[in-house]
């Protein structure tokens, strides 16, 4: 069980360490990437030796982000030494992939904002009221003896904007808007960031055409699902935005994306308007927020659909 700590105690842990490994979660999104990249920039200003890792492919969508080329993807058997291992924006340790096995560090710190956090680290700084981990990292960096450069501000804006749905999700608070305003004053260009993040490859659009044909309704129209079969799955295509389409159908409360990444490995993304989908995700060793959560089942797509839909209909 983790020891819960606050911002000041988190800063103390980071300040004492000389060699630090920062980890973004698998299925890397704007929040985990932006938060990790911003913290790397700040810690390096403090003279720390920082390595950033992710056990997954990063979508080309994020190629514009400062320092993004610095990510290391470890391989089985690789070994790294560090004073501190920091997992960022991940509610469970399996979200770090193989990295914890590859890094020999005496202390594991987790910085997160997911209410479903499993308290797996030695130390946990958790703020479930934050719309994004990026909000927390901004507050942390403001306490550091560093300059928040335009590059750091850009990374933090990506983190906050994406996890708040560009400030339209229910997790958006006055603190979220104030954080974004602070970053705007540092000279970032929100229009350029938005244009980069919204860019879609032709392959993405072609796959989306196929996926939209799979829309199916359950629970008297309150549940809408879409699916990507293993035959259509392509690890190089970013499908994060696909869930938006069933989510905004009139009368739909819960939208679900099933993605068969292997014959018997299915990733699930859920969005809701009223029910707590993080509870459902936890039943399947996943996690997330009340209105946005996910999990991975080691089952076929059809088996996964049967199990997940039963759990969702039970909540409804």
List keywords for this structure.
single chain, alpha/beta, inorganic pyrophosphatase (n-terminal core), Diaminopimelate Epimerase, Chain A, domain 1, 6-stranded parallel sheet, 6-stranded mixed sheet, globular
Beta-strand proportion: 15-25%
| Spans where pLDDT lies below 50 across 5 or more residues | none
- Give the end-to-end Cα distance, rounded to a whole number of Å: 32 Å
CATH topology grouping of the largest domain: inorganic pyrophosphatase (n-terminal core)
What can you see in these coordinates?
This protein is of the alpha/beta class and about 325 residues long. The chain has 2 domains: about 5-195, Alpha-Beta Complex (inorganic pyrophosphatase (n-terminal core)); about 200-315, Diaminopimelate Epimerase, Chain A, domain 1 (Roll), CATH 3.10.310.30. It has 11 helices and 14 strands. The protein has helices at about 5-15, 30-45, 100, 135-140, 150-165, 175-185, 190-200, 200-210, 245, 275-285, 300-315, and strands at about 5, 20-25, 50-55, 80, 85-90, 105, 110, 125, 215-220, 225-230, 255-260, 265-270, 285-290, 290-295. The strands form 3 sheets. Strands 1-8-7-5-2-3 form a 6-stranded parallel β-sheet, covered by helices on one side. A 6-stranded mixed β-sheet has the order 9-10-11-12-14-13. Strand 13 (about 285-290) and strand 14 form a beta hairpin. The longest helix is centred in the N-terminal third of the chain and has 16 residues, at about 30-45. The two termini are about 30 Å apart. The model has no long low-confidence stretch (mean pLDDT about 95).
């Amino acid at each position: 069980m983790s020891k819960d700590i606050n911002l000041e105690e988190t800063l103390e842990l980071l300040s004492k360490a000389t060699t630090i490994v920062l980890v973004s979660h698998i299925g890397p999104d704007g929040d985990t990437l932006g938060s990790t990249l911003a913290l790397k920039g700040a810690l390096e200003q403090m003279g720390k030796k920082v390595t950033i890792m992710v056990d997954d492919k990063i979508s080309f969508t994020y190629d514009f982000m400062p320092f993004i080329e610095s990510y290391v993807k470890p391989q089985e058997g690789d070994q790294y030494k560090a004073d501190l291992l920091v997992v960022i924006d991940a509610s469970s340790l399996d979200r770090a992939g193989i990295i914890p096995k590859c890094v020999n560090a005496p202390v594991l710190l987790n910085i997160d904002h997911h209410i479903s956090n499993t308290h797996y680290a030695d130390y946990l700084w958790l703020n479930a009221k934050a719309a994004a981990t990026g909000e927390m990292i901004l507050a942390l960096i403001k306490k550091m003896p560093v300059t928040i450069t335009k590059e750091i501000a850009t990374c933090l804006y990506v983190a906050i904007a994406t996890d708040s749905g560009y400030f339209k999700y229910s997790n958006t608070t006055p603190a979220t808007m104030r954080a974004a305003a602070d970053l705007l004053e540092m000279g970032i260009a929100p229009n350029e960031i938005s244009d980069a993040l919204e860019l879609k490859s032709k392959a993405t659009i072609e796959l989306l055409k196929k996926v939209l044909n799979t829309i199916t309704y359950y629970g008297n129209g309150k549940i809408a699902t879409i699916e990507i079969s293993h035959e259509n799955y392509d690890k190089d295509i970013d499908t994060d935005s696909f869930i938006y389409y069933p989510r905004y159908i009139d009368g739909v409360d819960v939208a679900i994306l099933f993605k068969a990444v292997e014959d018997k490995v299915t990733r699930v993304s859920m969005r809701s308007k009223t029910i707590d989908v993080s509870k459902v995700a936890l039943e399947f060793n996943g996690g997330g927020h009340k209105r946005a959560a996910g999990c991975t089942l080691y089952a076929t797509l059809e088996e996964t659909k049967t199990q997940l839909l039963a759990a969702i209909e039970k909540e409804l």
